[in-house]
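S1.2 Input.
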Amino acid sequence: MYALVDCNTFYASCEAIFNPAIRNAPVVVLSNNDGCIIARNAKAKALDIPDMVPFFQVETLVRKNNVRVFSSNYELYGDISAKVMHLMEPFGTAMEVYSIDEAFLRLPPACDYHSHGEKIKNRLWQQTRMPVCVGIAPSKTLAKLANHAAKKMQRLKGVCVLDEKHKWEWLLARITTDKVWGIGKRICQRLHHLGIHNALQLAQANPKYMRRHFSVVLERTIRELNGESCLDLELEPTPRKEIICTRSFSYKVTELHELQQAVSLYADRACEKLRKQNGLSATLWVYLESFDKGLGHFRPQRIIKLPFLTNDTRQIAHAAADTLAKIYRPGLRYKKCGVGLLDVRTRKYEQKDLFTPQQTEKSRKLMQIIDKTNQRYGKHTIKLLNSGIQGKWMMKRDYMSPRYTTRWQDIPQVRCS
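S1.3 Output.
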């Protein structure tokens, strides 16, 4: 049996943990540069505040209803997520962290699954004040649907167990195919042409026929909907073949040195992710984006080859800044730039010979020291000087809450009278 534990309105719930005054108020969280609404709690949804729309379009509605507005506090959300996952881990024999706010657990055999789900839910609320829903079933796809039911059906009180066939068939008959994990819009339209409109009809389809006319992925989904586990837990994240880091600026940037600061910082972030998966890259992509009334959208980009496979931030950031200078056009107002590390390879398969330059052992040890220092004392404790100290172009977060758990001056203080 598998359990899917999913945090309810995760970003908004994180904001309420250290701010009890907003627990009964409508809350929305904004995207990068305070652009769009990306998270709403239940009270904000009840006010019909739409999701994924530009904030300025609904600002009047938000102010009128005294909705609490927050910029994305990624430092806080990441730390709360780590705590939630740590507390969740002992409840299963294995765990797959699926995203920042949800994880799959393989449950121990022959236990009271409903009671087990209640214990997970209560433990996370008691220890972190994070509300969660738990869906339990014999396959990951059914666990996803059980979690969906736990969120939508009030009488389940946040825990749904599908341990018998008649239970999941009752639920599948009431769920449309677009709610099934892995079924996209196009596949949904093709299924409708076959007369398949709900999840039970999909579960009753011939898996071999669906494999021939769709894919092996859909065959696995059908088998999973029938309680056959075809998707095991991914205990280790799959190494990425490409690592891309792009951001929009808080204002339109015109100066080359500011753009080079940004591209150096993004290269730093990309290299940190590259080293985390023990990877190397020798192909670099640099990108700029501007909009001009005369030119329209102007998106210059260039791909270059580095001298050898490396994960050294210094070398990659320097190459990125030089490449950006070659595609930069003076007089334009740039709104975005980015860096990509392409054709990422694992160090395990690194080929070495006497006649090809290699990343030195001294460079590798220096990068390890930088990563360990930043991990212990916070991001960018050590960083390249050419990425700037605190650039004005950095992401705008006008409604930022304190970083309660990751910055000393923001740690809450208790005063006893």
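S1.4 Remarks. The chain has three domains: 1-136, 164-237, 243-387.
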